Give the backbone structure.
Amino acid sequence: MASVNVAIVYYSQTGTVYSLARAVAEGAEKAGAQVRVLKVAETAPVEAVEGKPAWAQHLRETADVAEVGLDDLEWADAVLFGTPTRFGNPASQLRAFIDTTGPLWFPGKLAGKVYSAFTASNTAHGGQESTILALSNTFYHWGGIIVPPGYTDPVQFKSGNPYGTSHVVGEGAPSETTLQAAAHQGRRVTETATALKAGRAN
């Protein structure tokens, strides 16, 4: 059987969610997936970006990361979405891309795929779980199969979020525990998508 295709679609303002996306990708690749790490387009005004040096620097550092297109979602057997939390919701940049997916949703091309999500907030209890749950509302409409990390690996009892990997930016860069949790999430999604693909092939 062909390996599963995993798309990791993210928005990151200063690099935290990008770091999580890379760890998710590592876990998925080690589980045998073909992986694409893809960013969504930046929709903020240039003046806003340039007004925050870390924001502008991150854009420059990830200039070579491909922007996601609808063809990437069609290609994927599983999709993980990463976003900072904005008042308990996904960032508008990610939502802007999701809102373009009607041409795939209407003919059912997003149904039956595996979906999962990860996030970061500036403060503890800063809307991490509600952001992931908000993304799940979209997955329901798509007819997706939602695969959270749950407490399915010892690292989850350290990282503490069964909904999806999350990080508190105010505490600094993602810890090794958080990165391990992200890798586990990528691995779990890949293993589930692999089992589904094998079952459908039979």
